[in-house]
Structure formats: structure tokens, C-alpha cells
Amino acid sequence: MKLVLGKKISIGLVAILTPFMASAQAKQPPLGITLERAIEIALSENPSVKIADLEVQKKKYAKQSAQSALYPQIDAVGQYSRTLKKQVMYMDGAFDMQEMLMPMITGMEQTFKGVDPGYELGTLQKNIAANSPPPTDSNEGITVGRDNNWTGGFQLSWPVVVPTLWKSLDISSLDVELAVESARSSKINMVNSVRKAYYTVLLAKDVLNVYRKSYDNAMLTYNDIQHKYQQGIVAEFDLIRADVNAKNIKPNLIQAQNSYNIAILSLKALMGIDMDQEITVDGSLLDYEESLYAEILSVDKSLDSNSDLKKFDIQTHQLQKSLELYKAQYYPTVAISGNYMYMSMNNDFKFGDYRWNPTSSVGLSVSIPIFDGFKKNKDIRQTKVSLEQMKWQREDVIRNLQLAVDNNINTMSNYVEQVFSTKDVVAQAQKGYEISQKLYDTGMGTLLDLNTAQLGSTQASLAFNQAIYNFLASKADLDKLLGVEISK
Questions:
Q1: How far apart are CA 281 and CA 10, in angstroms?
Q2: Distance separating alpha carbons of residues 409 and 466, to the nearest angstrom
Q3: pLDDT tens across 100-138, in order?
Q4: Is the per-residue pLDDT at 12 higher than 50?
Q5: 0.85 exceeded by pTM
Q6: CB–CB of 154/74 below 8 Å?
Q7: C-alpha 378: how far from its chain's center?
Q8: Counting beta carbons within 10 angstroms of the beta carbon of residue 84, is it exposed (0 to 12), middle (13 to 18) or buried (19 or more)?
Q9: Vertex 411, ends 406 and 412: CA angle to 5°?
Q10: What's the whole-number mean pLDDT along residues 130-149?
């Protein structure tokens, strides 16, 4: 009895614990994320990057499709037509069969006479005349053709000299090049977004730590004052102020926690991972402090890798090829054509009795443009004007890019100064808070001084973290502007 009861209890425990065990197994461990890892995942999983890569593949297929026009085109063709009313053919002058055959008849008369001396000349002619139809008038036509007409076979067309097609292929190649650059631009933008999202997470985490530390200090102060109040050492007013100070910090702590959660979700979305996947972001903004000056000194202001400028140059090259295409329209084109066909004409549908007659031909066609209403000339002039416009636009683009780079570098330099100045403020504010804490504990300071010192320390820490973040975000924007593909 005990053994049976024990088995039942074991089975019940297994049934109860199985869902929890399965849930524990299904829950994935937190994914540790560094900046390099975040960029790597985003470049492989983000949909916008995949779309850009597919666009490159699509342009390559379009180029290959255009190249197929250089090869011979062979088609199998078939045609059937039913004659509803046959064609009528007319001949000028009377159509006299006897007169047309007269030389032949005369020769046959002489042959018969030579074979048979008793043959009377003119006998054959009289017999033919008696059985021949009367001469046909020129106004009476002769019906030709049959009811059913069948045609089937192969046709060949091969453009041999087509200058416009060659220039079109050059433009298709540039389309592929432009798609590749657009894909690179998409990756650069993605890296920029991921970097700034990662830095935002670090900022949110550091801000959360600052407010958590401030709240913990406020609670320690409140507990200490409450203990002293219970002993009658401090006034109730100090206890109330300490309680109010701690409660005033709590909303900031909650807001900081929400900001951190939102920053984490934004980073997940950019990385293209499951939103339910738990991640832990390693490091803090303080890790980047020592490399700030080195980042500025290593900046290369060259615009050779700027994606917008590269795409602008490719589009200019495409316009130049379009100009060459319009000029190529003045050149002649040469094409080879041919066919091999079988034809049959019948008045019934007895396919087994059909006679199929083969026919074939090969031809060479040359087309020389002579006059088109000056269309080609106007197209050429219009394209030349567009090229002149793009020349001046490029100068303006370069000027604006250089201005943006210089402004970004100046902004980064200002943020570096802020980082090092606020770093000293953080140290002084922390020292001031510690001094205020000791003075208050010894009765030489007031709670107001302590709260003011704590607030100053919190604000200094927030300003320090914000300055580092501003520098890193500006550096990410500068790398995007300069066309740096991946920067760690």
C-alpha cells in the first residue's frame, strides 16, 4: 500500500514540476552584447541591410538581362490562316491558250507528217481548236490560292553592330555599381544607428546608476536621521526633510529605469533580434574617457569614402554614358536575320496527305539614321546642360560636406573639454558631499547643506556622463559623414 502511494506521489510531483522544468529549459540565457557584437548582429540580421543586398543582386540580374540582347535570338514560329475569299489575279490582253501553244502544235504536226506520210497537216490543230475554251478577256481574273494555309519553322535575328546597345550595357554596369554603393551606404547608416543606440544604453545605464546611488544615499540619510530622531538627537523637521528628499529622487529613479528599458528595446530592434531575448550590455561610458583625445587626433578629413559623394559621382558617370548613347544614335546598325520554314496549302484537313514545302532565307540589314526632326541633337544638348549643372552641384556638395566635417570636429573638441572639466567637478562634488556628511554627523552642518551637496554630486555625474555620450554620438556621426564602414 505504501509503495503504491509513493508511486502516485512521485507521478504527481513529476506532472506538477514538468511545466516549470520545460519553461526553465525554454528560457534562453541573457545575451552579452558589446559594441562590436551589436554591429555584427545588426549587419547580418537587420532587414534594411538584407534589402540593400538583394537590390544589388537584382541589379546584377538586370545587367545580365540587358547583355542577352548581344546574342542571337532564335524563335520557333507557327501560323495558320483560313482563306475566306481567295485572291484574284488579272492579266492584261486576251488570254488565248491555242495561240500560246501554236508553235508547239506546228512542230508536232511536222513530226507526225514525217512519221506518217499519209498524215494530213492541220488535223491536230483542228482537234485542239475544237476542244479549247474561247480566249479569256483581260477583265476576267483567275482565282488563286487554297482554303487552309499552314506555316511553321524557325526565325533568327542577331544584332551585329548596335552602338546604342553597347552604351546601354555600360549604363547597366553603372546601375550595379550604384546599387553596391547604396548597399554600403545602408550599412554605414546602420552602423551609425547601432553605435548611437549602444551609447544611449550606456548613458541610460549610467544615469540609472547615478540616481540609484543618490536614492540609496538619501535613504541611508533618512534611516540615520530617523534613528537619531527616535533617540531625541535631531528635530522632527530634519526627519521630514530627509523623507521628502528621498521621495523626490524616487520618480527620477523610475524614469531612469524606463529610459533604460526603452533604450534596450531600441537596440534590439536595430540589431534585428527577438524582442523577448534578454540581453546584457557590457561596459560603461567611462570606458571611453581615455581615448577621447586619440579619437580626435586620428580623424582623417578626406571625403573620398563619403557615400553621398560616391553616389553623386556614379550618377554623373551615368549621365556621361547617356550622352555617349545619344551620340551613338547617329551611327548605323547592322543585323543578321534568317528563317527556315515549312509551308503547306490545302483545301481539307487530311493532315496525312499534306505536302510540306521547305523554304529558307538569310538576310543582312543595315539601318542608317538620316533625319529625325533634330531629336538626337536636342537630347545631346540637354544632357550637356545637365552635366554642367552636376559639375556645379558637386562643388556645392563638397563645400557643404567639408563644412559639416569641420563643425563636427569642433563640436567633438568642445565635448572633450566638457568631459575633463566635468570630471573635476564630479570629484569636487563628491568630496563636498562627503565633507557635508561628516559635518552633519558631528552636528556642525545642516541637512540643507547635505542635500545640496548630494544634489550637486548627482548633477555633476549626470553632466559628466552626458558629455561623454555627446562626444561618442558626434564621433559616430562624423564616421558616417566620412564613410567609415565599421568603427569600433
A1: 42
A2: 18
A3: 667 777 777 778 777 777 777 777 777 776 666 665 555
A4: no
A5: no
A6: yes
A7: 34
A8: exposed
A9: 100
A10: 70
CATH 1.20.1600.10: does it fit domain 28-70+162-331+372-482? yes
What is the arithmetic mean of pLDDT over 235-245?
A: 85
- Give yes or no for a contact between 324 and 167, defined as CB atoms under 8 angstroms apart: yes
Joined together, the cell numbers standing for residue 42 give: 545588426
For residues 242 and 218, give the distance between their C-alpha atoms in angstroms, rounded to a whole number.
Answer: 7
Give kind and range of the element (H or E) at residue 158: strand 148-161
Residue extents of the structural domains in the chain = 28-70+162-331+372-482
Contacts of 151 (CB under 8 A, 6+ apart): 77, 78, 79, 80, 341, 342, 343
pLDDT digits over 248-279, tens only?
889 999 999 999 999 999 999 988 888 888 88
Length of the chain: 488
* Cell numbers given for 459: 548633477
C-alpha cell at position 474: 558626434
Instruction: Give start and end residues of each alpha helix (H) in 231-306.
Output: 236-271, 292-297
- pLDDT of 21 reads 46
User: Which three cell numbers mark 12?
Assistant: 504527481
Mean per-residue pLDDT over the chain, rounded: 84
Contact 343, 356 (CB under 8 A): yes
Cβ neighbourhood burial of 302 (10 Å; 0-12, 13-18, 19+): exposed
